Amino acid sequence: MEKYLGILLILVLTFFAKSFFQNPAVLGISTPSPTQILPVNQPVTTQSSFTEKLQEETESLPKKVIYQDDPETEAGEEKVLEEGEDGKKTKIFKVTYSTDGEEYSREIVSVETTLAKDKKILRGTKIIWKILDTPDGEIKYWKKLRVYATHYDSRCPGCNEWTAIGMRAGKGVIAVDPKVIKLRSKVYIPGYGMAVAGDTGGAIKGNIIDLGFDDAKTAGWKARFIDIYLL
Which residues of 34-129 form beta strands (DSSP E)? Predict the structure, then answer.
């Protein structure tokens, strides 16, 4: 009899042990299963701490100036054929900002370019000689030019005794912008006299000339606009 009771006890204990490991809830213990933590069909939701905005940046593409020589028009005369138009390049960026407003990343979304249209100018090249009576006598010139005339000597900052084309600096030699007046050109300047375009200078750009003197302090020249004549 005791033998059978022992066998029965072992079977009962084995049953409860299997039930406990397979289902702890039998003893009132609840262990969440993976499906209870995150069911397969439950959507995942997250909260982003970033914001995104589109930003546009435009870059100007300057138009070029194109000259067309016209041998039938007097030198110095110009006529605008086409005004042209500046182009532009537009970039669209997607900019991401963090919650504190700082830029986190930047990505180009699109680029659009509008090409510039050249400005076209008809420029006369025909030489027509003219006569001018001056206090220094009659001169023959082909072009009158309005310029702003300053003055200098070999002792000015950055200057020396020799000019850009190897002439000695002083009275009768002027500094010019070679794009406006060619070097070695002969020029008549009222109140100054005959001169040679023999020098250049960093500040001499466009319609500006610098009159050379042996001593600029005693020259008595006052910077001003004046008409000069190319010979």
Answer: 50-61, 65-74, 78-82, 87-98, 103-114, 119-126
* Minimum mean pLDDT range among 26-30, 110-114, 144-148, 163-167: 26-30
| CA atoms in the 13 A half-sphere facing the CB of 85 | 4
Architecture in CATH of 50-123: Single Sheet (2.20)
* Helix boundaries (H) for the chain: 2-22, 34-37
pTM assigned to the model:
0.57
Terminal alpha carbon distance of the chain? 146
Q: Which CATH class is domain 129-230?
A: mainly beta
DSSP-assigned beta bridge partners for residue 66: 120
Q: What is the pLDDT of residue 147?
A: 97
CB-CB contact of 212 with 171 (8 Å): yes
Q: Average pLDDT of 156-179?
A: 90
